Amino acid sequence: MAKQKPRTLSGFMELLPEKQVQFEKMAELLRRSYALYGFTPLDTPIIEASEVLLAKAGGETEKQIYRFTKGDSDLSLRFDLTVPLAKYVALHYGELTFPFRRFQIGKVYRGERAQRGRFREFYQADIDVIGDGKLDIVNEAEIPAVIYNTFTALGLKRFQIRVNNRKILNGFYAMLGLSEKSGDIMRTVDKLDKIGPDKVAELLTDEEIGLTAEQAGEILKFIGIKGSQGEVLASLEGYRGRNETFDAGLDELTTVVKYLSAFGVPEDHFTVDLTIARGLDYYTGTVYETAMLDHPEIGSVCSGGRYDSLAEYYTDKQLPGVGISIGLTRLFYVLEEQGYLNDQLSTAPADVLVIPMTADLAPAISFATALRNAGVRAQLYTEQRKFKQKMSYADKLKIPYVAFLGEDEIAQSAVSVKDMATGQQRTVSVDEAIGMVKAGLAGMAGIAPIKEPKV
Amino acid sequence: MAKQKPRTLSGFMELLPEKQVQFEKMAELLRRSYALYGFTPLDTPIIEASEVLLAKAGGETEKQIYRFTKGDSDLSLRFDLTVPLAKYVALHYGELTFPFRRFQIGKVYRGERAQRGRFREFYQADIDVIGDGKLDIVNEAEIPAVIYNTFTALGLKRFQIRVNNRKILNGFYAMLGLSEKSGDIMRTVDKLDKIGPDKVAELLTDEEIGLTAEQAGEILKFIGIKGSQGEVLASLEGYRGRNETFDAGLDELTTVVKYLSAFGVPEDHFTVDLTIARGLDYYTGTVYETAMLDHPEIGSVCSGGRYDSLAEYYTDKQLPGVGISIGLTRLFYVLEEQGYLNDQLSTAPADVLVIPMTADLAPAISFATALRNAGVRAQLYTEQRKFKQKMSYADKLKIPYVAFLGEDEIAQSAVSVKDMATGQQRTVSVDEAIGMVKAGLAGMAGIAPIKEPKV
């Protein structure tokens, strides 16, 4: 028979079992961390009606969309989890309780140009809090705590959450009489890290944007405000009283900073960064980015912010919210590339490999059943192979314990258990064996999926 | 602004938060149950190249496929998890360790005619064991144990696993000289439950199939073999020695039955049912179906079997396997329709709603942080609403505990905790409050998502 060459599409991540376990462990920790903050899990379809999904989209997004027809239906694959959330909240408004806090971890699709580290199918892991009409500022203060605790649970240590407030930026540009140019200015300022202040000043004063040298100087001075959170806030107080929006933003930022220690975020994991703007026509208050300190080139690994209107394309209801998103597939790829995946994390499909040594398999089956009833993952190995091959199977899969049931063991109602890490083997009763394995596994629990390499 | 009416496509399940939690709990129990048997989690892309995905498909499947082009690529959405597994194993053959045991819970797509209870996007929850060249019969005996323990963990009691062996059927039809008609015969016999033996005999002897009355009688007698497992096996022994395939199948079935009690499957949850055939051109040995005893009209909720060749369209390697699949979305729909979802299962997004009663929120935030650090899911409620509305929020979301921090509590370093089920409220220290909540939650743990309604 002619064979079809098997292949996986480029831009689609497909992991080998060991890596998949590491990925699953990360996703599980995200779910657990999000749940601790009262976010409820949500799942929406991957396919939506195109006119619904693309009500707002345009430009670059629309070009990347996977869009097709099936029968008479014009369908599209979701390209993020925010638009489906907006649809969900508008559609089920009357059946939801607000503030509505949801997390969603799911695949999204973007037909980007294929290149290393860019994915066309990738997981996003989002949380959002949606208010009905209003939403208290404390929700904005809580988000950095979620980010901090989530990355800490994953095992990451050297990261920093960077916060700004769009009202401060908008208010500041209004003070300079530059509101109409604020979009262009922010896009230029965003390049500061890459091209430096001189080049930014040059771009700001060139023909296209057309600022005066004085205005450019004011802007560079403003975004150059650095220091501890207290110092930055103090510097910003110097601008107070000249613009209402600015003052409102400064109040919000001050509140966010004030509550951070009660939320348990250490000061060194958090900074006010006036260069951060994020999605220019969407966010309206606090905005967040998260940087890996040893890999600034990767960009933000968790971003988001406050918005005034989640679902304006679907409903007249005012639905303000705040949310963040982790690009989990991209993050996993980067962590693997940079050697951040913890090889101490158990990736074995089972905790015990049970090898029967007699023709009658019943005692081995009973032992495997007893392990499972005790919550221990057990695999029976009954293939007709040489003993060495059976041990090599456990070895390759990194299964930590191997149990043998031969005639001697069966006669004594016992089992021989080999600890694959130490090589020690003991013949003990079934109950003792289960206890031994459970104690060993308890010692391996709590190992984080990320371990930072020594620099 | 003109609004786009939000809607979700018909045939796509989108659950409200409470139901979603019930669904997630079921999926989590499936993952846990599958993992206990040494299956490793896998995730493959939802989109595959059409020529890869459809290498084997044809007929009804091909018509239902979501197929489209993006750029120059001819793409399709997966319609099951078996073909992607075959591709995965063929593609990564050299990097896998066999027997390869994987589970996968993921969405698949079939553009079926829309009707109540039929889904176009639905979850399948599959396990498969793939051997390299050979695969021991014990794997076939273990599958009913996985089914039994999985459904039991979900809370289902009144179900029965039905097992047959395709070799027994093929051998039996060979004895009658009817091998070439066996497909037609099995398709007819499959209707026995619905149309009864007389009508089956009529169909078997009509022009299209054309059996003699005697042959039809033999077949009805054979598939009419009923009784305990021992009785059925004894009756089948009466046919031994007339066909090699039959004898091999009977040996396999006998082995499967023999090991079931060691695997912990109670005899009343398991039966040999000679009418079961399943996918006619795929399964080659043991086949499984699972019936809900009080809802036979639903059909099998978990099916599968043994196959000799997983990936023959992609590779010359002989890859025999055995697997089962649960149609999770359909199962969930049926359970909900039939009143099987356990309303005792907690669906709250948080365990404690923390309500600050002072202008300074720091003490409430610190308490919420302490709860989370202790693994308790806590939500701060800081919206400006009347007290009654705050309590109603907890009530609607079924949050079991509400904690208040007013001036009195803060002065005493205490917190008032209300148990929403009993209405009791106590003012205690932070540590006592955490202990109280954790004890209460421990009492609610282990509640299964399914509770059978009293008949």
Description:
The first copy, chain A, is elongated, with a radius of gyration of 28 Å. The first copy, chain A, has 2 domains: 17-337, 2-Layer Sandwich (BirA Bifunctional Protein, domain 2); 352-444, Rossmann fold (3-Layer(aba) Sandwich). In chain A, helix 5 packs across helix 11 (244-260). Chain A contains 16 helices and 16 strands. Chain A has 455 residues and is an alpha+beta fold. Chain A has an 8-stranded mixed beta sheet. A 5-stranded mixed beta sheet of chain A has the order 13-12-14-15-16, with helices on both faces. At the A-B interface, helix 1, strand 1, strand 2, strand 3 and helix 4 of A face helix 1, strand 1, strand 2, strand 3 and helix 4 of B.
Helicity range of the residues of chain A?
25-40%
Globally, the shape of chain A reads: elongated
CATH topology of the largest domain in chain A: BirA Bifunctional Protein, domain 2
Strand order of the largest sheet of chain A: 1-5-6-11-10-9-7-8
Oligomer: homodimer
Please write the CATH class name of the largest domain in chain A. Answer: Alpha Beta
Number of strands of chain A: 16
Mean pLDDT of chain A: 94
Strand content of chain A: 15-25%
Number of helices of chain A: 16
Major sheet description of chain A: 8 strands, mixed
How much is the radius of gyration of chain A in Å? 28 Å
Give the uncertain stretches of chain A in residue-range form: none
- How many domains of chain A? The number is 2
Q: Largest interface by residue count? A: A-B, 103 and 102 residues
Second-tier CATH architecture of the largest domain in chain A: 2-Layer Sandwich
Decide which structural class fits the backbone of chain A: alpha+beta
Looking at this structure, what is the CATH superfamily of the largest domain in chain A? Answer: Bira Bifunctional Protein, Domain 2
Measure the end-to-end span of chain A: 54 Å
